[in-house]
Amino acid sequence: MSHQQLYPVTQAALARTYLTNEQYLQMYQQSIKEPEQFWAEHGRRLDWITPYTKVKDSSFELGNVHVNWFSDGTLNASYNCLDRHLPAKANQVAYFWEGDEPGVQKAVTYQELYDEVCQLANGMRSLGVGKGDKVTIYLPMIPQAAVALLACARIGAVHSVVFAGFSPDALGSRIVDCDSKLVITADQALRGARTTALKDNTDLALGHLGAANPVKHVIVVKHVGQNIDEHAGRDVWYHDLLAAQPKHCEPEPMNAEDPLFILYTSGSTGKPKGVLHTTGGYMVWASMTHQYVFDYQDGDVYWCAADVGWVTGHTYIVYGPLANGATSVMFEGVPTYPNVKRIAQIVDKYQVNVLYTAPTAIRALMAHGTAAVEGANLSSLHLLGSVGEPINPEAWHWYHEQVGKGQCPIVDTWWQTETGGALITPLPGATALKPGSATRPFFGVIPAIVDNEGNLLDGTCEGNLVLLDSWPGMMRTVFGDHDRFEQTYFSTYKGMYFTGDGAKRDEDGYYWLTGRVDDVLNVSGHRLGTAEIESCLVAHEAIAEAAVVGYPHDLKGQGIYVFIAPRVGVEPSDDLTKAVKEWVRREISPIASPDLIQWAPGLPKTRSGKIMRRILRKIAANEHDSLGDISTLADPSVVEHLIENRLNK
Ligand code: ATP
Ligand code: MG
């Protein structure tokens, strides 16, 4: 992998960057040798009510795991995202909101955002919600989603965002888990012209909870204009609540270690965990990574095409960009509605400079050849980003050439809900790129690779990715279950945070994510990562997406079972199946050649677009009766189709 093409830093990136390679290397060394001094300095990028005198206090030792940063400082996250920008940027656009339907749009300035956040914050206080209370947010991608997060932060309430595509039961279990007093939702959500009845779902969720329902009030945004069942005394319209409220609200002083939010992980590997982030360290991390990873400069138009229901939306649609006074695009819809050109059209329309999206979206567009980018002017783009899964080199090249026209560096950012923000990532003016590699650590991050016994490996190596010390943005605990936090992340390898991901390190010290370690295959004694085989498969001209899992095999221990979604217009056949096996055999090795290939119209994904290999593993092993938690699955019908047509009966 390391022998692949190197893309040096471009002159254009160098001309505008905050950090050259020399500066990155120097700052990185300082950040790990003198973390106290480094973070004492960079923590001051925020406005503090009471400045901190303490910087770092953390331990990864099992039984005593704790993480504290800036712990005697006080601040308010919404103040840092809004108030401090008003003197210079009141009339600057914070969000260009683009509705699901082309032509539906709205620009929100910093002043307007501030006013509405204050009104909602006051409204929430009038409902008896205050510091430390939990608020569940179940909203589509509309400006009120950002308003709701910030209004919680303003009064010290802890938000728990539940993705608007989730079912009533998934919503209900998250409400109960964190004991929410309040739900903020909308009548309906609109995505790709399909509606989801959010308020009805909320009613159902709370109804099912019965006596366990902790919710006292439901605030409802009138978005689509649908009638709702109003529960007197409990429900209140957002616009009615705000109408009476002043456009000023004192921000609650929060300790740096007071919780900012709880967010449940995607559930790719099992039951979602309630990841808890606190205020000071998270905000430092969100704003600093947003600035340096995207080289964000005043005047740039930045678009993170994630959903606010995921951590990417929290950090890189709301807290990071707003802390930096940025102008963002916020998009309600999906990349393929009304057609595959939508992303390119939005880039063109708002003259977007930075586009940050996920490999799943890139592969979906790529399946249509170049149709997705035809007819749009994409020359405003100067930087592209990727997050969520390893980006297959084939998808990287398509993104680089078709979207970036060969001119834009791609920042492949590796991180997790747990990490708060990007940890391993290129910096556009500092890092030469290798397609498929997340490259090098951000400041203060000490990645390492260990073998299965936990021995640290040196130099070029492959194994389990761990992190050796805390960084300001990391999670503090699993909400309500500190023991699960310790067991999940710190018990596998003593004194280290275990990411659950596998990685290689090459001779330049670059990291290559090889997939989840739970997904690693052991074929005739050879360990094979899923990422490499899948990348090889999607490089085949007939293949749009592929997922690789192991299944019990008498001779090899594990056989290789491949699920493939063909590109648009491709008809699967026995000859094609044979050709694909031959392709993998030639491109990687005979050991990696698939034993079984099942063609399918689609693969099972989490609603954030990640392939759920644990479900495919069950189907491949003919154990589809016990699929485990599928509440975060995007489209159950995909699974039924796969089970029906499974090959290992
Ligand atoms: P769960 O923890 O509930 O199983 P999840 O891990 O999918 O769900 P997230 O926190 O949303 O939940 O995803 C983080 C994971 O996504 C990482 O651990 C990694 O496996 C993958 N990932 C994210 N970005 C990248 C990237 N740039 N390259 C490779 N893998 C990535
Ligand atoms: Mg995870």
Automatic annotation (TrEMBL):
<dbReference type="InterPro" id="IPR011904">
    <property type="entry name" value="Ac_CoA_lig"/>
</dbReference>
<feature type="domain" description="AMP-binding enzyme C-terminal">
    <location>
        <begin position="532"/>
        <end position="610"/>
    </location>
</feature>
<keyword id="KW-0067">ATP-binding</keyword>
<feature type="binding site">
    <location>
        <position position="540"/>
    </location>
    <ligand>
        <name>Mg(2+)</name>
    </ligand>
</feature>
<feature type="domain" description="Acetyl-coenzyme A synthetase N-terminal">
    <location>
        <begin position="24"/>
        <end position="81"/>
    </location>
</feature>
<keyword id="KW-0460">Magnesium</keyword>
<keyword id="KW-0479">Metal-binding</keyword>
<feature type="binding site">
    <location>
        <position position="527"/>
    </location>
    <ligand>
        <name>ATP</name>
    </ligand>
</feature>
<feature type="binding site">
    <location>
        <position position="538"/>
    </location>
    <ligand>
        <name>Mg(2+)</name>
    </ligand>
</feature>
<keyword id="KW-0547">Nucleotide-binding</keyword>
<dbReference type="InterPro" id="IPR045851">
    <property type="entry name" value="AMP-bd_C_sf"/>
</dbReference>
<keyword id="KW-0007">Acetylation</keyword>
<dbReference type="GO" id="GO:0003987">
    <property type="term" value="F:acetate-CoA ligase activity"/>
</dbReference>
<dbReference type="Pfam" id="PF13193">
    <property type="entry name" value="AMP-binding_C"/>
</dbReference>
<dbReference type="InterPro" id="IPR025110">
    <property type="entry name" value="AMP-bd_C"/>
</dbReference>
<feature type="modified residue" description="N6-acetyllysine">
    <location>
        <position position="610"/>
    </location>
</feature>
<dbReference type="InterPro" id="IPR042099">
    <property type="entry name" value="ANL_N_sf"/>
</dbReference>
<feature type="binding site">
    <location>
        <begin position="412"/>
        <end position="417"/>
    </location>
    <ligand>
        <name>ATP</name>
    </ligand>
</feature>
<dbReference type="GO" id="GO:0005829">
    <property type="term" value="C:cytosol"/>
</dbReference>
<dbReference type="GO" id="GO:0019427">
    <property type="term" value="P:acetyl-CoA biosynthetic process from acetate"/>
</dbReference>
<dbReference type="Pfam" id="PF16177">
    <property type="entry name" value="ACAS_N"/>
</dbReference>
<dbReference type="InterPro" id="IPR020845">
    <property type="entry name" value="AMP-binding_CS"/>
</dbReference>
<dbReference type="GO" id="GO:0046872">
    <property type="term" value="F:metal ion binding"/>
</dbReference>
<dbReference type="GO" id="GO:0016208">
    <property type="term" value="F:AMP binding"/>
</dbReference>
<comment type="similarity">
    <text>Belongs to the ATP-dependent AMP-binding enzyme family.</text>
</comment>
<dbReference type="InterPro" id="IPR032387">
    <property type="entry name" value="ACAS_N"/>
</dbReference>
<comment type="function">
    <text>Catalyzes the conversion of acetate into acetyl-CoA (AcCoA), an essential intermediate at the junction of anabolic and catabolic pathways. AcsA undergoes a two-step reaction. In the first half reaction, AcsA combines acetate with ATP to form acetyl-adenylate (AcAMP) intermediate. In the second half reaction, it can then transfer the acetyl group from AcAMP to the sulfhydryl group of CoA, forming the product AcCoA.</text>
</comment>
<feature type="binding site">
    <location>
        <position position="501"/>
    </location>
    <ligand>
        <name>ATP</name>
    </ligand>
</feature>
<feature type="binding site">
    <location>
        <position position="543"/>
    </location>
    <ligand>
        <name>Mg(2+)</name>
    </ligand>
</feature>
<dbReference type="GO" id="GO:0005524">
    <property type="term" value="F:ATP binding"/>
</dbReference>
<protein>
    <recommendedName>
        <fullName>Acetyl-coenzyme A synthetase</fullName>
        <ecNumber>6.2.1.1</ecNumber>
    </recommendedName>
</protein>
<feature type="binding site">
    <location>
        <position position="585"/>
    </location>
    <ligand>
        <name>CoA</name>
    </ligand>
</feature>
<dbReference type="InterPro" id="IPR000873">
    <property type="entry name" value="AMP-dep_synth/lig_dom"/>
</dbReference>
<feature type="binding site">
    <location>
        <position position="312"/>
    </location>
    <ligand>
        <name>CoA</name>
    </ligand>
</feature>
<feature type="binding site">
    <location>
        <position position="516"/>
    </location>
    <ligand>
        <name>ATP</name>
    </ligand>
</feature>
<keyword id="KW-0436">Ligase</keyword>
<feature type="binding site">
    <location>
        <position position="524"/>
    </location>
    <ligand>
        <name>CoA</name>
    </ligand>
</feature>
<dbReference type="Pfam" id="PF00501">
    <property type="entry name" value="AMP-binding"/>
</dbReference>
<feature type="domain" description="AMP-dependent synthetase/ligase">
    <location>
        <begin position="89"/>
        <end position="467"/>
    </location>
</feature>
<feature type="binding site">
    <location>
        <begin position="388"/>
        <end position="390"/>
    </location>
    <ligand>
        <name>ATP</name>
    </ligand>
</feature>
